[in-house]
Amino acid sequence: HKITPMTDKIFVCRSGSAADTQIISDYCRYYLSMHHIELGEDPRVETTARLFNQLCYHNKEMLMASIIVGGYDARKGGQVFEHSAGRRAHQAAVHHRRLRLFLHLRLLRCQLQRGYVQRRVHRVC
Predict the structure, then answer these.
(1) I need a surface site. Which of 1, 31, 44, 74 has the fewest CB within 10 A?
(2) How many angstroms separate the first and last alpha carbons of the chain?
């Protein structure tokens, strides 16, 4: 799958060499879990994008990877960042309705799989 969950609310769309993007995603997930343990809070979308940027940009001669990081955090809400091969990451315009809708549906699907939404609906009813 080219769409990889990094946290409960942050997802990555990977493009390029599958092996390259998979290992970068694995490294980032590891670093984000350490970040979560140290700070005691969920990582921000911007932090995730910068982490991907550092790994990709500093290894650009060896990697063929383009990545879109999208998600939601409590500080800035919904955000999307893109990193193209050999270039620095920049924040993408969030007016892309399809991408926003896709991210919302993906987040809802993950929450449904974990039973979060069902418990919440049950409390309201």
Answers:
(1) 1
(2) 36
